[in-house]
Design a protein that fits this description.
This protein has 287 residues and is α+β, with helices and mostly antiparallel strands. The chain has helices at 38-48, 53-73, 77-84, 89-98, 117-127, 132-160, 205-225, 248-257, 271-280, and strands spanning 4-11, 19-27, 32-36, 103-105, 109-110, 165-170, 182-189, 193-198, 235-239, 263-265. It has 2 domains: 4-130, no CATH class; 141-280, Trna Endonuclease, Chain: A, domain 1. Residues 77-83 have low confidence and may be disordered.
Length: 287
């Protein structure tokens, strides 16, 4: 088989009843091509639940191996023939027959047409992911974000905007040790700081982790640079709604419940933060 493709699958059950096609590998006489669907990878992570990290490991290993093979070949067909001798269509037939773990491959399928980059994208769209589910998911996320921030605006921001800073961008002029852009939903002071940061857990896990790291870093830098009155203590809140159960996002969310750095509050309960700010008599402190 001169040119062929195989589908990369993630299987969540030994019997292979729950599987998702996450990518495609194409072998041509001149090079190897590989592409993975971000949308299908997210679905696979949810299928694997506690083993969700396996998806990223598998994808990284395949992607790395193919890049190394293509680099070694350097476009020479004689070298490619030798390099590809270990990953022929027969090799993938064997993988299809005997692989019974999380990672599986389809039977190799012959490609008759000349496969340029454009045709590869069309083939991937036809067989693995046409992008429509991802578009629907993006639309759903936008609706969730609109509701999330709209609730915070109604229950918190509108009630404290005349008392403390709201939607404030923290500048390096105020906090010189801050090395990244940062915004708080609200921040006030009365001998000690009181403030809240909203982080939507409908974002991908990389963004959530980055936002949480930035928030904890900001609190640490602020507390170190501007120590509160000895009789008072800084108070910070994380506004976040609980994500779907048995997902990597939910695993992080549960760890935030007992955080010693901030109190976790849902968007629907953000009016309790407004009451805390009012009771603290905090005010604006930056001109």
């Amino acid at each position: 088989m001169k040119s062929f493709y195989t589908i990369v699958k993630i299987v969540s059950t030994p019997a292979g009843l729950d599987s998702i096609s996450i990518g495609m590998i194409v072998s041509t006489p001149k090079r190897l091509l590989v592409k993975f669907s971000e949308n299908k990878k997210n679905i696979a992570r949810k299928l694997l639940k506690t083993n969700a990290k396996t998806v990223d490991y598998v994808v990284n290993q395949i992607d790395k191996s193919i890049k190394e093979l293509n680099k070694s070949c350097n476009g020479r067909e004689d070298t490619l023939f030798n390099m590809h001798s270990s990953i022929t269509s027969d090799y993938f037939k064997t993988l299809n027959t005997y692989s019974n773990g999380v990672l599986q491959f389809s039977q190799p399928n012959a490609i008759l047409d000349d496969l340029n980059d454009q045709n590869f994208k069309k083939l991937f769209s036809l067989i693995v992911d046409d992008g429509k589910e991802s578009e629907n998911e993006d639309g759903q996320n936008k609706a969730e974000l609109k509701k999330f921030y709209g609730t915070i605006e109604k229950k918190l921001i509108s009630k404290v905007e005349n008392k403390v800073h709201t939607k404030i961008h923290i500048s390096q002029e105020f906090l010189p040790s801050l090395f990244f852009p940062f915004q708080m939903e609200c921040l006030g002071k009365n001998g000690a700081f009181i403030g809240a940061k909203a982080i939507p857990f409908s974002h991908n896990i990389v963004t959530i982790t980055k936002d949480l790291t930035n928030y904890t870093t900001f609190i640490t830098l602020l507390t170190t640079s501007h120590k509160p009155n000895s009789k008072k203590k800084n108070t910070f809140f994380l506004i976040a709604d609980e994500p779907s159960l048995e997902t990597p996002e939910h695993e992080i969310y549960t760890k935030m419940i007992d955080s010693p750095i901030f109190d976790l509050v849902s968007s629907e309960q953000s009016d309790t933060i407004a009451k805390r700010i009012e009771n603290s008599h905090a005010t604006k402190f930056i001109d």
